[in-house]
Description:
The protein is an all-alpha fold.
Amino acid sequence: MHTSINDKFLLQKLKQGDVSALEHIFDSYYTDICRYLLLYINNIMVVEGIVQELFIYIWEKREQLHIHTSIESYLYNASKYKALNYLRNEKKQKEIREKVTKQQAISANLSEEIIEAEELKQIIEDAINLLPDRCQEIFRLSREDNLSNKEIASLLNISVKTVENQIGTALKKLRIYLRPYHPSVFAALLTI
């Protein structure tokens, strides 16, 4: 489609800074272009913003503007590209927002788990500290240092049976102390 005489005249006036030429183009096409963009973007406020930006662009770049088709064709194509750019940017923004939201949720869950684990460790540590000294020592050698009952007996110069009795006593006392707390305390206790 070639530029009509009327289009050439309007473009010439526009390049000369004639505001009435821009107003004529705006009045002639604004509503139709907005309707057209609603096919791409289902938000009238966004559509109107895109079309208004297009007319601002035309005014600001009027001296460098080279339209080789009709003004109508130029406006429809330019508005379509602006709408597609908007949609592409919105998609990227949505992906970024989703990633940020997901990372925040993961961080919040991780922080809660870390806090719970620290609280759990402290509860278990408090319970172990309540054990009699010798019982506590044997229990720590077993659970923290991973020594066998035989190794503990040899280290402390006591019988293996004494080690077994002290660990059994420690576990009974710890179960009583830890009973009101989270059920996973017992599982955690066995790994100490």
